[in-house]
């Protein structure tokens, strides 16, 4: 009997990993449908080393630099490896997008060729892929060293999330599918997978997933309502207009913006649901005689404590990228009412407050589901123990 119970327990714990690995394999090999984009046919992207540069055609006007920088580069990989060619770096007068190369730099270039003849070399940017790989390797190493098997599961969920967004969510959006429905399906599916990797397929997972789903649905509904009330257009999202000009005028940027609200807050919602579920489970484990309402009350107390920091976390996450904009407002002496009324500021306020609504919703609901689901089994066990004690006493008598 003990072996059967151990086998069942092992199966419950390992089955989410097996399911996740299967999903990972599917995501790795599933096509996006955009692999053969015409824009980059007949081209090759590769790493080069800058040998020398010519800045004579660059025009400096204060902070703005325009014109062209000519670079002599040596190709380090690909079909043209070892060849020395001339590359062109076009400057648009934008500090945000322009780059300047010096001799010895490693650069990422786009080579336009016909057969073995190179027609044009475009200097895309400095080469960063090797350093990104090193950073990712350090992250994986530390995650596994400190968290062990849990770290490996976290890494698995991380990779699945990245692939799900790139291979499923983005292609579906580009194909014109309803962004809100697609976002809900992807977000809820990822929530189930990620939480199952933490707990296994058991009542704790059911509790945390139930709470997370309510928070996500609340965020979704409120996001749709207040996006309309705020008169927010999806063009407030960075690079969204470029998407329309690339031949995707049929896309609804506003619905994509609505979906981004609950997708962006889903991580914090999931985190809070897991925190409350784990806390309630710990209370029940250490006090098997606790009743449901006491367990629910404990979960709500934990939710109150965590909610305060989580709301601030959302605020910092959303506003961190707007520090320069806030500095511009202050430097120009823009009145605070004007700032709050700007469309892009209102969009960030919408993100933060609606995401916080999701947290407020998920806390009591997760506490309730955890209290009901996790104490039921304990009560049954308690009755079984009492029955066994009565039986032993009867035999003794």
From TrEMBL:
Leader sequence residues: none
Keywords: Membrane, Transmembrane, Transmembrane helix
Pfam families, per database record: YibE_F
The keyword Cytoplasm is annotated on this UniProt entry: no
InterPro entries: YibE_F
Superkingdom classification of source: Bacteria
TM spans (from-to): 12-30, 133-148, 155-174, 180-201, 213-236, 256-274, 305-329, 349-374
Name the UniProt record assigns to this protein: Uncharacterized membrane protein
Organism: Anaerosporobacter mobilis DSM 15930
């Amino acid at each position: 009997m003990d072996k059967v119970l151990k086998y069942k327990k092992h199966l419950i714990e390992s089955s989410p990993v097996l399911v996740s690995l299967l999903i990972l394999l599917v995501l790795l090999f599933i096509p996006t449908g955009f692999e053969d984009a015409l824009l980059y046919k007949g081209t090759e992207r590769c790493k080069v080393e800058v040998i020398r540069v010519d800045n004579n055609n660059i025009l400096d006007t204060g902070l703005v630099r325009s014109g062209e920088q000519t670079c002599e580069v040596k190709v380090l990989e690909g079909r043209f490896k070892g060849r020395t060619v001339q590359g062109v770096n076009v400057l648009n007068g934008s500090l945000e997008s322009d780059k300047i190369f010096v001799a010895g730099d490693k650069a990422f270039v786009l080579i336009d060729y016909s057969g073995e003849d190179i027609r044009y070399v475009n200097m895309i940017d400095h080469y960063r892929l090797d350093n990104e790989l090193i950073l990712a390797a350090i992250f994986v190493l530390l995650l596994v060293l400190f968290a062990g098997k849990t770290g490996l599961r976290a890494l698995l969920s991380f990779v699945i999330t990245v692939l799900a967004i790139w291979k499923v969510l983005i292609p579906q959006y580009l194909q014109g599918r309803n962004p809100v429905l697609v976002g809900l399906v992807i977000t809820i599916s990822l929530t189930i997978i990620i939480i199952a990797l933490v707990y296994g397929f058991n009542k704790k997972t059911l509790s945390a997933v139930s709470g997370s789903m309510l928070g996500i649905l609340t965020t979704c509904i409120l996001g749709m309502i207040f996006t309309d009330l705020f008169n927010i257009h999806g063009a407030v999202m960075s690079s969204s207009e470029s998407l329309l000009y690339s031949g995707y005028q049929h896309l609804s940027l506003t619905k994509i913006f609505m979906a981004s609200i609950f997708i962006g807050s889903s991580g914090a919602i999931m985190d809070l649901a897991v925190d409350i579920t784990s806390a309630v489970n710990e209370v029940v484990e250490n006090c098997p005689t606790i009743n449901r309402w006491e367990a629910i009350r404990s979960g709500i107390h934990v939710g109150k404590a965590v909610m305060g920091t989580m709301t601030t976390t959302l605020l910092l996450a959303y506003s961190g990228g707007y520090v320069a904009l806030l500095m511009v407002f202050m430097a120009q002496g823009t009145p605070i009412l004007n700032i709050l009324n700007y469309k892009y500021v209102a969009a960030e306020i919408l993100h933060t407050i609606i995401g916080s609504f999701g947290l407020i919703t998920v806390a009591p609901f997760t506490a309730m589901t955890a209290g009901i689901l996790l104490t039921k089994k304990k009560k049954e066990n308690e009755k079984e123990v009492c029955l066994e004690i009565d039986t032993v006493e009867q035999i003794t008598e």
